[in-house]
Specification:
This protein has 3 helices and 6 strands; from the N terminus they run ββββαββαα. The protein has helices at residues 30-37, 63-69, 71-74, and strands at residues 2-3, 10-11, 15-18, 24-27, 53-55, 58-60. The structure holds zinc ion (ZN) (2 copies). One zinc ion (ZN) binds at residues 4, 6-7, 9, 27-29, 32. This is Prokaryotic metallothionein.
């Protein structure tokens, strides 16, 4: 058992999240893990819960936000290409 480092809940199904730097964090639910760990879009400030996009080491929630902030390389980012339903 572990105590969630965000809300303090001591929960039997708490889980660990290990980062690339080797740090270990304990949470009782995904919502608390997102609150603590998710990167924040540098354009619109939403928590990036899905893949998001990374441009020159900066994180964005979507291609639009990347293009809005990162002029040259951001211009290469696309959410989708090709055919789509009319
Ligand atoms: Zn929690
Ligand atoms: Zn955004």
């Amino acid at each position: 058992m572990a105590t969630c480092e965000v809300c303090g809940n001591d929960y039997w199904m708490a889980f660990e999240v290990r980062t690339v730097s080797g740090d270990v964090h304990n949470f009782d639910c995904f919502e608390c893990a997102i609150q603590k760990m998710a990167p924040i879009c540098e354009h619109c400030q939403v928590k990036i819960v899905g893949h998001g996009v990374e441009v020159s080491g900066r994180f964005f929630c979507c291609a639009h936000c990347a293009r809005a902030v990162e002029g040259t390389q951001g211009a290469e980012i696309r959410d989708a290409i090709g055919a789509r339903p009319a």
